[in-house]
Amino acid sequence: MILSVKNLTKKFGDFTAVNNISFSIKKGEIFGLLGPNGAGKTTTIKMICGLIKPTSGEITIDGINALENPLEAKKLIGWMSAESILDEDLTVWENMEVQAKLHNFNKFEEKAEELLKYFDIYNFAKNKVSNLSTGMRKKLEIAMALINDPSILVLDEPTIALDPNTRAALWEVIERANKERKVTVLLTTHYMDEADRLCDRIAIIDHGKIIANDSPSNLKKKYGNTTLEIKTKKEVELKGYEYQKEGNNYIISVKDLSNDISKIIKLVGENNIISINVNNPSLDNVFLRLTGRKISEEKTESTKIYRILKSSR
Ligand SMILES: Nc1ncnc2c1ncn2[C@@H]1O[C@H](COP(=O)(O)OP(=O)(O)OP(=O)(O)O)[C@@H](O)[C@H]1O
Ligand SMILES: [Mg+2]
After folding, report:
1. The model's pTM
2. pLDDT by residue (tens digit) across 230-264?
3. How many CB atoms lie within 10 A of CB 109?
4. What is the pLDDT of residues 40-80, one digit of tens each?
5. Does the beta carbon of 41 sit less than 6 angstroms from any atom of ligand 1?
């Protein structure tokens, strides 16, 4: 295990932000903390990175007790915050230099060059950060987080507020770094598709508690359900099935698709069907099933963008 968290709790006054959580991450994994706004993701990460003190619990990083030996533990971590830490007025190279100095890393040139080349931004080394695209900034931030050759790369909402193309490009960057540089990754996200695409395992966190912890495919197998979406000409009654209805549009939960589909078509009547769609299980319906709520993307996005704007001023 490269990271192990045991009964970790963080209280702010009377409020419990992180409530007795435990999980561990194996070497080489990409592990995701997935949860909505205010679930306790950043608080968990900040405790792991030694930025805030837990109220109680244990954190072990590569065999080191992080609470007893915080300086030793910090050396093993590369951290990227959800809010940009880049200095806009400095060049790409100077930002790398500042980061290296923070780690008391004086002979950083070789490492910085290798990392900037690896992430394909070496040509921009002398450019001011203010001239970089959003995708390049993110790559620079990841490069900075890797300057001290960490055992574990911790990324807090790495693709927040990025457009879909830049997000997809960044997923590839993270995946490549994980495979080729053999760095374990812990990331937080509220994007279901991101967690599904990138993570070997996910802990779903809600109101400070871990409510599920498994691989995306196992979670979908266990909690996700296949639904059949049928649009009909006339109203029907689907006895024996659980379904939602909006006008003549029916979303039906099915347990055994190949068996149920023919039964449902019979119930509806073949001539009565306008269209029929099969929706495979997704992490969205896993979350819905576990919490009874949807992760509200829109609200999260606008709150976040506002916060990022505020913090970059
Ligand atoms: N310093 C603090 N003082 C008081 N409450 C705090 C503090 N930091 C966080 N909280 C509260 O703890 C809860 C968890 O916050 P946290 O930032 O960990 O959530 P998150 O899962 O990272 O959410 P987001 O998706 O918005 O980043 C929130 O209700 C937040 O308001
Ligand atoms: Mg957060």
Report:
1. 0.86
2. 999 999 999 999 888 989 999 898 888 889 999 99
3. 12
4. 999 999 999 999 999 999 999 999 999 999 999 999 999 99
5. yes
230 Rama sector, left if φ>0, alpha if ψ -120 to 50, beta otherwise = beta
- Which atom of ligand 1 lies at the shortest distance from residue 10's CA? 12
Cβ pair 35, 149 in contact under 8 A: no
Asked if 3-76+150-220 and 225-280 have one fold, the answer is no
**What's the CA gap between 103 and 98, in Å, rounded?**
9
Cβ-based neighbours of 313, under 8 Å, separated by 6 or more: none
Which atom of ligand 1 is found nearest the CA of 205? 21
pLDDT number for residue 307: 53
**Is there an atom of ligand 1 within 6 Å of 12 CB?**
yes
**Which ligand 1 atom is nearest residue 15's CA?**
5
Structure confidence at residue 298 (pLDDT): 44
Domain ranges of the chain: 3-76+150-220, 225-280
For ligand 1, atom 30: residue with the closest CA: 38
Ligand nearest to the CA of 191: 1
The fold for domain 225-280 equals Alpha-Beta Plaits (3.30.70)
Report which protein residue has its CA nearest ligand 1's atom 26.
Answer: 37
Contact 30, 187 (CB under 8 A): yes
What torsion, rounded to 10 degrees, do the Cα atoms 111, 112, 113, 115 define? Answer: 80
CATH label, 3-76+150-220, candidates 3.60.15.10, 3.40.50.300, 3.40.50.800, 3.30.70.920: 3.40.50.300
